Amino acid sequence: DIYESMSLLDLKHYISELFTGLKHVHEKGIIHRDIKPGNFLYNKKRKEGYIGDFGLAQKFTVNDIQTSNAKNGSKRKLKTNGQNRRDGYLKHDPRKPIHVDRSGTKSFRAPEIYLHSPRQTTVAMDIWAVGVILLSFLANVFPIFNPKDGAEGLIELTEVFGLKKMREFAKFYGRNIKTNLPGMPEEAPDMDELCRTLNNDKIASWDNEEYLLALDLMKKCLQLIDSDRITAVDALKHPFLKEVVKN
């Protein structure tokens, strides 16, 4: 398996190529909707990668986000991080507000899909999938998420993000999350601690500063609320990738 033999430098090149591909895909007005290692053709020797399988891809129209909070039942303002964030939405979307769970491979599905949110048509869905790939590598667990259905998907997310963040996430999308399952953490476990628990030997052999940069990029991808996720353009400027990004 290519991922088992990857070094942290190999990961840099891999993720850089993946984000470069997504940058071009998104600039063409396309959401891939099924980003995963099996759909990214990567040549480790040449350090080149190509995104494949556009069977679930959709065209979108790029619009400045005003706010869809009224539709989502939330008063939360969308974060911009001081930049003019632009998200993609379908130009003509005939679907009703409650969307069916049909997008991509379960292990890499964005969390808003599990809530059947109408906001299933942003390029941020692809960014989430890259975050899952990063987390899988850093924790050395492939796949890190492996739900059988939407309910199990929400449970797995709660185990990683905690009930408090999951409630905030659900509220933003106009939903509620209630559970009587024992053992669900209220607060999110520390991502660094989680990765070290699962992959301590490898992490101990890596440069700590580089590992922490990879962890930071992963966190910026794995934001529960879609508008909080980093864009492909900004990801390519992240300190973890800057030295390997091709001009």
TrEMBL record:
SMART domains the UniProt entry points to: S_TKc
Record EC number: 2.7.11.1
Domain Protein kinase residue range list: 1-241
A molecular-function term among this protein's GO annotations: protein serine/threonine kinase activity
Top EC class of this enzyme: transferase
Entries under SUPFAM superfamilies matching the protein: Protein kinase-like (PK-like) (SSF56112)
UniProt biased composition (Basic and acidic residues): 84-102
Cellular component, GO annotation: nucleus
Coiled-coil ranges per UniProt: none
Keyword Magnesium: no
Hydrolase listed as a keyword: no
Stored InterPro entries: Kinase-like_dom_sf (IPR011009), Prot_kinase_dom (IPR000719), Ser/Thr_kinase_AS (IPR008271)
Region (Disordered) residue spans: 71-102
One Pfam family of this chain: Pkinase
Name of the featured protein: non-specific serine/threonine protein kinase
Species of origin: Rhizopus stolonifer
Organismal lineage: Eukaryota, Fungi, Fungi incertae sedis, Mucoromycota, Mucoromycotina
